[in-house]
């Protein structure tokens, strides 16, 4: 079996690409070598190959390197092929068969969530969410699940003041401090909820799906009709457990890792909030 450790040049080239993608702008080759723990000679050699093939670009006046056009083309191809949605669809279909309620997958798009997969349970009431629909992230369970695992600075940038909050049915957080408190509760519970904040008479539970760095790339949610009162804790916990198992399956399918695994590998969660 071929692994990255058995092909070190390929592994190092991919590490350089991932490093460049994580930077705010072009960086010196010396910084790449230092931060990745690679010999400078190897880094320069790999950068030359990446530049030649268009995956990196050299800025000679600045003596720095950044991502090239070929890297952009790869990202665009990923978006066109929609692998996240393709990999999620059978997982959500099995989830719906298990809980007999509708489920969906949403990704963060600015201050909104964008629904990319929607699996409807047979005989259940129609929902406002559908593929391509956008809703305020702070009001949806899927959005809250994602926001709870983002760095504090990211959440502050998205919701800097009260004017950043959209009112849908007179419920949900209206200020940055209220949102912070809600996200603390999400992290404490291990899943996010909403009750009537998207559509009166419906509630949702959701968990985040994480990529290979432990970053939350999507929210996986179950939506179900409720009475006027808050759903009982046992039912909500049961739905949350089912969503967590489905999210773990999807995380494995996309090669992701849990935030806990990321912490053990050296990435601190102290920046999250």
Automatic annotation (TrEMBL):
Organism classification: Bacteria, Bacillati, Actinomycetota, Actinomycetes, Micrococcales
Pfam hit, one: IclR_C
Keywords: DNA-binding, Signal, Transcription, Transcription regulation
HTH iclR-type domain sequence ranges: 7-69
Region (Disordered): 250-273
Compositionally biased spans, kind Basic and acidic residues: 250-264
Statement: the UniProt record of this protein carries the keyword Chaperone: no
Matches recorded under SMART domains: HTH_ICLR
Protein name stated in the entry: IclR family transcriptional regulator
Domain of life, source organism: Bacteria
Species name: Occultella glacieicola
IclR-ED domain span: 70-256
Signal sequence range: 1-24
């Amino acid at each position: 079996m071929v692994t990255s450790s058995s092909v070190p040049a390929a592994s190092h080239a991919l590490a350089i690409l991932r490093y460049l993608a994580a930077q705010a702008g072009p960086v010196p080759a010396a910084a790449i070598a230092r931060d990745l723990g690679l010999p400078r000679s190897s880094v320069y050699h790999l950068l030359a190959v990446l530049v030649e093939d268009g995956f990196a670009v050299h800025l000679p006046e600045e003596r720095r390197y950044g991502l090239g056009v070929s890297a952009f083309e790869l990202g665009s191809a990923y978006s066109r092929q929609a692998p996240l949605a393709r990999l999620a669809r059978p997982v959500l279909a099995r989830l719906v068969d298990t809980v007999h309620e509708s489920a969906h997958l949403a990704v963060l798009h600015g201050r909104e969530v964008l629904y990319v997969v929607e699996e409807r349970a047979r005989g259940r009431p129609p929902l406002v969410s559908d593929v391509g629909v956008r809703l305020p992230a702070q009001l949806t369970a899927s959005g809250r699940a994602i926001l709870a695992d983002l760095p504090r600075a990211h959440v502050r940038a998205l919701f800097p003041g009260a004017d950043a909050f959209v009112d849908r049915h007179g419920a949900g957080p209206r200020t940055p401090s209220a949102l912070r408190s809600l996200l603390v509760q999400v992290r404490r519970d291990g899943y996010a909820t909403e009750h009537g904040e998207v559509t009166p008479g419906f509630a949702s539970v959701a968990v985040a799906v994480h990529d290979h760095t432990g970053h939350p790339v999507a929210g996986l949610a179950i939506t179900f009709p409720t009475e006027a009162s808050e759903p009982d804790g046992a039912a909500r916990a049961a739905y949350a457990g089912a969503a967590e198992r489905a999210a773990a399956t999807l995380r494995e399918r996309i090669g992701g890792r849990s935030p806990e695994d990321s912490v053990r590998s050296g990435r601190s969660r102290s920046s999250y909030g």
